[in-house]
Amino acid sequence: MKRHDKERPNKASAGRRFAVWLIVLAVAAVLIRLALASRYGGFMSDQELFVDWMRQVRQRGLGTVYIEGSNINYPPLFLLIMEAYRSAAGLFGIVPAAGELSFKGVLIALDLAAFGAAVLLTRSSGRTAGRLFVLALLALNPALIFGSAVWGQVDMLHSLLMAASLLLLPGSPPAAGALFALALLSKFQAVTLLAVFGIYFLRLLLRREFRPPALFAAGFAGVTGACAAFFAWSGGLQAMLKGAYLSAVGMYPQVTMNAMNVWYYFIGTPPTTPDTTKVLGFLSLRTAGFLLLALCVVYAAACLWRSRMDAAALLKSAALVNFAFFMLPTEIHERYSVPALVLAVFVCLYDRRWRLPAVLLSLSVTANLWMVQAERIGVYPGLAVVYVNVALLLWMLLALGREMRAGRSSDTADRNAKGRRKARAPGIG
């Protein structure tokens, strides 16, 4: 009884220390972002476009803005968030302007909301150093800070929703389905999770476990159905689908749009090479990139199939698929690496071996973003980033492969043990 009495103050003290660390991280995250957002204008063309979208939504309404507006090629969730921010800022007489804190405030708020969501999503890990590492890498990550507070982009939104969907999938399929729908309503890149979800639910269905897939589908349908009904009622459903998901496809037909991937001189292709260029006389570079991605997705799916199908395995497979999506297809932008980074950070919650790769990936993404935003892209500095990224992709492939082989060895050992037990069992005679 006395021992329990001693343990309670220790637990309370540990809880207070952990809470203090969370407050320190949150405050540091906000202050750093505010300082950088105030000092650096960022990527003005993106921000000017977003501010113009705010104006168009205010004038025409969200339901018809895709019909009557122009140059809107993001899904509606971000437009809805920006309109809510514009309305709230207007109460204080603030008019969002590109390159100013008045606009970047919405991005900083999203980053802070993502940190708060991460605190909740990692609660099952307790007050551990591993959990604190993950939260610190999210709050103070130079790539995530640069992407929002300096550049002025919103990649953290769909990236966090993707990670949250995978984290909740084993225990709460309806919430996972709803979050995946929100991720798709934030950015179409979230579609990369379909391969992961497909393998997960296929295995459940083969085991005749029908309830989790049905619950996931219900959560997904609830969100997407409400969105579709809203735009259909406004008459803008077809225009929304075309503008948000189809209009940007094939817009930049070159091998890479500033992404430091395999197409950036690594295999001898300058970035401006048209991806319609034929190789072997019949295969375009664009098709070759998709074939490489398909091979990587099949590999990740096979590794996931042989795993325990827990949150760690889901995150690892998704991180590999998303990093392969950044590294292998053509026409990829520099910011498409952010979801892979966020997923890799959450993997660190379960596997210490991913910590160094997650840090290196953070630095390579930061370098890529800075080079583009500062217009200081050099061939050899860019290639240095490419070599780091290629090494990280190979490491992910090998890491998942080792785990798949270990799973096979474990299954074989279990089967052999069962066989020996049967052989020793007395017969009926």
Give me a quick take on this structure:
This is DUF2029 domain-containing protein. With 429 residues, the protein is an all-alpha fold. Helix content is 70%, strand content 2%.
Structure notes:
- The N and C termini lie far apart (56 Å).
- Strands 1-4 form a two-stranded parallel ribbon.
- It has 2 domains: 247 residues, no CATH class; 162 residues, no CATH class.
- It has 17 helices and 4 strands.
- A hairpin with a 3-residue loop joins β2 and β3.
- By secondary structure, it is mainly alpha-helical.
- α8 runs antiparallel to α14, α13 runs antiparallel to α14 and α16 packs antiparallel against α17.
- Helix content is 70%, strand content 2%.
Oligomer state equals single chain
Question: Roughly how many Å is the radius of gyration?
Answer: 24 Å
Main sheet: which strands, in order across?
1-4
The gross shape turns out to be globular
Low-confidence stretches: 409-414, 425-429
**What's the number of extended β-strand segments?**
4
> Class by helix and strand content?
mainly alpha
Proportion of β residues? under 5%
**What pattern of helices and strands is seen along the backbone?**
HHHHHHHHHHHHEEEHHEHHH
User: How many domains would you count in the coordinates?
Assistant: 2
Q: Number of helix segments?
A: 17
* Mean model confidence by pLDDT: 91
Could you give the distance between the termini?
A: 56 Å
Helix content: over 70%
Largest pleated sheet: 2 strands, parallel
Transmembrane segments: 101-121, 133-154, 174-202, 214-233, 279-301, 313-330, 379-400
Protein name: DUF2029 domain-containing protein
Biased composition (Basic residues): 418-429
Region (Disordered): 410-429
